[in-house]
Amino acid sequence: MAYVFPPALPVSLPIVGRTERFPVRRVYCVGQNYSDHIAEMGGNLREPPFFFSKPSDALAPGDGEVVYPTQTEDYQHEIELVVAIGEGGREIAAGRALAHVFGYAVGLDMTRRDLQRQAKERQQPWEMCKGADQSAPISPLFPVAQAGHPCRGVIWLKVNGVEKQRGDLAQMIWKPAEIIANLSAYIALAPGDLIFTGTPAGVSAVTRGDVLEGGVDGLGTLNVRVV
């Protein structure tokens, strides 16, 4: 097949303990899935989960540098558990949803918070506040065979060595199985999809030169420097 210019290489992630890589298809995110974060953002508890997307090429290795984007003066961190889908499906029942999971990772949902506020006020889409270049740093994937299905454990983030976020996966309002069930009611999931599952309270702005270190119990850490 001929193209007018070379197509972009597929986005992929390293897998802990394996030489193969995980090819990424789509990146979905869950909004406000920890009660303390909902409180700090002024939302209501246990509403049906809502979803937004990031472009797959917003992913960045969770061990290096990420660029502070243009058009914002309030770029904020959100540390999250990431679910990697290994088997697709539509209208997946929550009771069998975890069988569709390939593995888990630690991710950052970096957000142009000032643009997000404007989008909320004007009832506009979130693409430009959530989809900045390198706005999704992510660690290598841990297969289910190694990590199991994390349902509790500390999730945390430090900025320049100062702790900003700390919660527990048990505090998630919608658990990974419920998230998969809800999302697959809207669209067909496929192998290669990633789902960022929400963040605990403590989100705050970063600036150029800041070093972010975060992790989830059993899934290691990620370390990025904002440049």
Automatic annotation (TrEMBL):
Annotated InterPro entries: Fumarylacetoacetase-like_C (IPR011234), Fumarylacetoacetase_C_sf (IPR036663)
The Fumarylacetoacetase-like C-terminal domain, residue ranges: 27-227
UniProtKB keywords: Hydrolase, Metal-binding
UniProt keyword annotation of Metal-binding present: yes
Entry annotated with the keyword Hydrolase: yes
UniProt-recorded name of the protein: Fumarylacetoacetate hydrolase family protein
A Gene Ontology molecular function term of the record: hydrolase activity
Native organism: Dentiradicibacter hellwigii
Superkingdom of the organism of origin: Bacteria
